[in-house]
């Protein structure tokens, strides 16, 4: 890096601004994604400042040293996330003509150990819904939330931002705007439709705040819900149901995918319904079902039953 670091601050700020614009306009990234990439970039730029390296002079060797430093401070998943953000930034620098070659092309990410996501069986989802007290005002809303998450596999951000205009009740589908503002159509089950219609009866009694009229799910004060509200509700409901598993909105998304795969759905169809950009992300559910099949064999195969009785 040049000795006079202050002289580089202006161009660097311009790069960061143009990079955020690139993520928004050309990549169609959401605000959350842009903020996450910006956070990862700041970690990298701080490292370069400490090493007195100018960003346009970075080599693969510099990046490997940076990755090695990450290894000492954060776990494999966080390392992968930060390095993904760094790669994205260097791709932008090439596209925008700042550099000719991308030094991050050969940068390797750490191996992430297999982690099978927690999921619920349909019977456990029923238990979750049945544990909601019938005399509580928000129980029908919460039942509809659980059913939509399980029946449609929505992300929690997609659920809290869901608009009435995205629901096609008669046609039995919901139009979802996912990551990168990508649209997908997801069928609504009869059970989800029934729970939503019952919730709409309660929703009609609310005094809705101006500007909140379009949201499907509202709190008792007429405001749309937040991710934290959904998480707290699910944890409390799981505790009331006596479920020992760690429950979150993403658990129901995993449950949706696992139930489809166990029911014989094609992996590509599940990828489309979940809105996964890569089939590799969807493939983790094959490990989940393989594990459940293995457990079923160990528990119910006559050879294993006989051996367990010896």
Percent of residues in helices comes to: 55-70%
Main β sheet profile: 3 strands, antiparallel
Query: From N to C, what is the helix and strand string?
Result: HHHHHHHEEEHHHHHHH
Unreliable residue stretches: 1-7
Count all strands and give the number: 3
Structural class: mainly alpha
Percent of residues in β-strands = under 5%
Radius of gyration: 24 Å
Shape call: elongated
Given the structure, what is the number of helices?
14
Major beta sheet, strand line-up:
1-2-3
Query: How far from one another are the termini?
Result: 72 Å
Key phrases:
single chain; about 300 residues; three-stranded antiparallel β-sheet; 14 helices; elongated; disordered N terminus
Write a compact overview of the structure shown.
This protein is mainly alpha-helical. Helix content is 59%, strand content 4%.
Write up this protein:
This protein has 310 residues and is mainly alpha-helical. It is built from 14 helices and three strands. The chain has a three-stranded antiparallel sheet with strand order 1-2-3, with no helix packed on it.
Detail the topology: elements first, then pairings.
Layout: H1 6-25, H2 31-51, H3 60-73, H4 76-95, H5 122-130, H6 139-152, H7 156-160, E1 167-168, E2 173-177, E3 183-187, H8 190-203, H9 227-241, H10 249-262, H11 267-274, H12 279-282, H13 284-300, H14 302-309
Antiparallel strand pairs: 1-2, 2-3
Helix pairs in contact: 2-4, 5-6, 5-9, 6-8, 6-10, 10-13
